[in-house]
Amino acid sequence: MAHFLKDKACVVGVGETRYTRGTDTTTLQDALQASARALADAGLKPHDIDGIVSNAGLAPAPETLAANLGVRELRFAVGNTVGGGAGACAGLQIAATAIACGLARNVLMPVGWHSYSGLRVRKLGSEVDLATVPGPIGATIADFYMPQGAFVPAHFYGWMATRYVQEYGVRPEAAGAVALAARRHAHLNPLAYMRGRTLTLEDYLNSRIVSYPFRLNDCCLETDGACAIVMTSAQRARDLPKTPVYISGCAEGHPYPDDDFGARTDLLHIGLTDAAPKAFEMAQVRPADLDFAQVYDCFTYVVLIELEALGVCGRGEAGDFVRGGRIELGGDLPILTHGGLLSEAHLAGASHIVEAVRQLRHECGERQVKDAEVGVVTGWGDFGDGSIAILRR
Amino acid sequence: MASQSPQYKLPLPARIGLAAEFYRYCKEHELRFQRCTGCGAWRHLPRPMCGECGSFDYQWARSSGRGTVYSWITVVQPLLPAFNDAVPYSVVLVDMEEGVRMVAMLQDTAPEALRIGMPVEVVFEDAAAEIALPRFKKSG
Hints:
heterodimer; A: alpha/beta; Peroxisomal Thiolase, Chain A, domain 1; nine-stranded mixed beta sheet; B: mainly beta; five-stranded antiparallel beta sheet; three-stranded antiparallel beta sheet; 1 helix; globular
C-alpha cells in the first residue's frame, strides 16, 4: 500500500535573491524578496498563504514573515529546529504533512542567511557564547569540544572525514572530484558566486590545508542571500501555472546520540543512513532511478559519505563512484547541478530544493539534466542530522 | 570566575550542570566517567539518565586513563586569536578502555605519528586555579 504522504504535496513556486558577499539588506528583506518571487512563480498572492515553516536561526520567525508579507490568516506556523542545514529539506516533510492532513493549504518556506556579512561560523565562541546557544550542540561544544580546540563544523566533520579516509583509503582526488563537479556546474549557473572562477584538480590539490583532512577547496562558501519555496496540495497544484513537483518521499534521521560525536559507535552512521531507505521506500524509487542528486555539500568529504548513505554505492565505494565524470552533467548521477554550497552560495540547503524543482520543470537551460523525471535532495546539519526528499515531476 | 593562569590562553569549559562534576575530578587530575549503578554501563558525556536502562542513579567511576585513537583532526588555520600560538594542533577521538569515547587535544605527540588504534593515555593540563583539562599523549 502506498505511503499516505506519497505525492500528496507539491512544490509550486520557487524564488531567490542575488547571491553576494556583502550586502546592504537585512535577512528579513532578502527573505521577503525571495518569498515574493516564489509566490509570483506559484501564481499565488500572500493572502493565499496560511502556513509558514521557517528554519530557526536561518530565517525570520513565521510571525514576522506573515506580518510583513500581509498574510492575514496564519494557521500553521513552525520555527523548524531540525539541525541547521538539515532544516530546509526536513521542512518539506513538515509542510507536506501539514498539507496532506489539511492543517494548511498553501505553505511558504523561506531561508535567508547572511553567512558572509552577518555572523560568520568562524566567530562561534568569540562573538557568540556557545554555552548559551539553544538546541543540542551548544553545551557540548562549550564544555567538551571548545576547550580541546574543536568548535566549528570543519573540526567536527573532520573527525568523520579522517575516519573515513583512514578506514577506506580514500584519496584527496575523490573529494576533489566533488569540488570540481560543483564548480563545473556553477559555470553554467548565472546566480552562482563562483561562476567563471576556474578550479582545476591541480588547484584543488594545491589549496592549503585549513584543518586536516580539509583543504580550503573542500569547504563551502560564506555568502549573503535568500531563497523561498511555496507548497500546496497535489490537487490544487494542477490549477497553478508551473509544472507541479511532487514530494514522493521524505524522511529525517538523527545519529545516536545526536548531541555528541564522540559517543557514536560508528561515526560514519549518519542521520541520512537511517532516513534514506525510508524515503526511497515511500517514493517507491531505487537509487538507480535518480536523474540527479542535490547532496548537501558543506564539505566535499561529507558528500562522499552521504552518497554512500543514499545507497547509490556501497560503503567505502564513493571514492570510486565519483571518478570519470559520473557525478557531472552528462554522467550517471549529476550532483549539485547549481554549484551547491561549494560554488553557488550557502543557503543552508534551500537552494538545493530550488534547483531540484527547476531541473524537474526542465527550466535549467544549459545545465539541464536531460529528461529529468526524479531526483533527490539531502540536508545535513549540526552534528550530522540528515534529511532527504525524493522529488518527481 | 576562574583566575586563569597567565600562560594559558585557550577557552575554558563552561562547566554547566553535570559537566561541573566531571571537571571537579579533573582538577584533582582524576579522569572519571559516570557509571550507571542500575546496569553498570559507562557513559560520557555526563547525563542525568542512563540511555541503556533508564536509571537515574550513577557513580563517578575512575577511568584507567588509557585508550586508543579512533579519529582525529589537525587544525592548521586558527579561527580564533586564542589559538594563534597553538596551531598546528590535533584533536583526537579516543576509545577509552571503559568503552566510552572522548574528545581531547593531543599533547607531546607529533601529528604525523597519529594512527587509528594508536595507544594513548590521559595527562592533565592545569589551565586555571580550579580548572585542569584532560589531554592525551602517545603511550609508552
